[in-house]
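sanity check this fold:
=====
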Amino acid sequence: MASLSLYENKQSFLNSLSPISKMVYVLAIIVIPLLVDQLALFGVTILLSASLLAHSRVLRKALPMLGISGFIIFTVAIVQGIFNPNNARALFSLGGITFYQEGLLFALGVTLNVCNIILAFCVLVLTTKSSDMIEDLVRMGFSPRFGYVFVSLFQLIPQMTSRISTITDAQRSRGMETEGSLFVRMKAFLPLISPVIMSSFIDTKERALALEVRGFNARNPKTFLNAPIRSKHDGWIQLLCVLGLLGALIWRFI
């Protein structure tokens, strides 16, 4: 059965950290460069997240997520390089179209920000079980409903990918052409996407019934099956992240 999580257990440094520590890291690594507003700092945070992922041997799994955003980033670079209202200094021309320094610098900032966000979330998602995240959040006093929604977001991509793959194989076994020219792919889109949507509705209903049967809405105090994940490094990692956020706030507003 395909996993409904992007989690990879490599017995690494990141795997041993508390989910809360990694959530604080994600917050700090995204917010600090935005407050400082220096492109070089985006490069530092990207390198830090990439190094942590490489050390945990999950960097290869993060690369496709960067690739998915590549087309959007490329489009932003073209649009901003040509049409940004602050464009003034021409940088180069390509096929009679002039690209400007101001727009390309803005697009570079967007690119670095997107890559930074993706890699930061990969540090959390690829090295943390969704069940561990929800349990730690509930232990801190969050509503189980909030935790369930939070976990469902992380399960959405692998779940949809698995379902699309299964439906595609089923349609191929019935003789449907799903590969070839653009016209063939467009013709196969509706027969593929319709079962995906309908099965998602059915799955949502089944989950709601399963949660109700297991007493999800019960008001009694909750107990936890698994012991919380804690590391001797959690304290100083959270402290460094908080100090980094405070330093960035002072830099920005004082």
In short: The mean pLDDT is 82.
